[in-house]
Structure formats: structure tokens, C-alpha cells
Amino acid sequence: MIYRGSSASSMIIAWGLFGQAAITSAAERPCREDTDKFCQDVKAAGARIAECLQNHREELSPECKVRGQEVHEHVQGTQES
Question: Angle at the Cα of 14 (from 12 to 17), degrees rounded to 5?
């Protein structure tokens, strides 16, 4: 996942939200298996999980990558408003 034209701060915000999204309810957590697989030793804090997921972004499931993109687009949209 490469986001062209994104500022570092928006990426941090997006991945922080992405980390939170990764640990939400079962129906809305397409990254749960990825989190369990790659980040099992990471304490459940959104920013830490987000950083872990970002470090493994090339290995994430397609569903998790899509969720990360959705969160990124949401953050971009709110910053442009």
C-alpha cells in the first residue's frame, strides 16, 4: 500500500485509526487474523498495532489491505473538508 501525496501526519492518523479498526467487533475486523498472525506480541494499543500492521503491509490479507485503504481515504476526506 503506497499512498502518494500523503503527508506524514495523515499517514500516522490513518494507521492509528487502522489499528483501532483492526481490533473492533468481529463483523468489522477484516484485519483480526493479520493482527493475530503478525502482531501477537504487540500490546493492544491502536498505534502499536497500526505500526505493526504497517510494517507487514505487503503481507496483509486482501481484506485487511482494503480496510486500510478505506481508513486512509476517510482520513484524507476529513482533512480536506
Answer: 105
- Is 3 inside any structural domain? no
Q: Within a domain: residue 62?
A: yes
| Range(s) of the domain holding residue 21 | 8-80
Spatial CA neighbour of 20 closest among 60, 41, 51? 51
pTM of the model: 0.59
Q: What is the pLDDT of residues 8-64, one digit of tens each?
A: 555 555 655 555 555 555 546 788 899 899 999 988 766 788 889 889 999 999 999
Residue appearing with cell numbers 505487503: 58
What does DSSP assign to residue 57?
G
